Amino acid sequence: MSGLSFETAVDNSFSQTLASLTAGWCKPENSAGKTTVFFRADDIGVPGRNYLEMMELFDYYKLPICLALVPAWLTHSRFAAITDSLCQDFNRYSFHQHGYLHRNHELIGKKQEFGPSRTHEQLNSDLTRGKARLEQIAGPNFLPVFTPPWNRCSAHCLNSLASLGYVGLSRFSGASPAIPPGLHDLSVGLDLHTRKADNPDKDLTLFLTQLKKGLSDQHLGIMLHHQRMDRKSFVVLDSLLKVLSASNRIEFATFHDLVHPRTTK
Question: Whole-prediction pTM value?
Fold first, then answer.
């Protein structure tokens, strides 16, 4: 559920608020070229009603999405169910790796699966096994980009990625340690469904500020968690997709587009 995020403060005027925000951003005096926007959906592995409804929205607006697969959750039959829900144009999707077990290994501090309490050997083993599993199940549809659960991982993990064949890393913008050379930085800057706030109205203002900043920065990654979505969450996502897809100043992308630009779309 959304808890105390801004979604609890959303009312019937939300779509109009979004439209006004993007209209102001699109004015000629504010024009500085197009903005690249991508969506990253985490915790993909066991498709259910929320997953299917989320994908129906992206299909309706014909927008791409990057799907973060949890290797240990995935089976051939589950991947078949995941892909059966997609349109036939697989250029709209980037299947990449989201941890291995999606399990916290830290006894103190914030949750991390690939955190500082684990040895170099343990980290490399989980990275290698997870990547191999997704290559075996997803085949050529798998892109070796790594999204650590909870958007956190240790320096040891980061420094192993390129040598293990990963080409990109996706965390939250400004995360530390810094991304090492040899990896594409595919950071997200806007969180829709795992926000926590004492005051939903203030969080709504913050969300709109973050959205406007991301659009103005000409690069915006938006993080989704379908398992956390309720009815109002889907209203928010629908409104956001509707408004953004109507803008001629936005170019929507997948991780494939950002890592290996396609010659045609």
Answer: 0.91
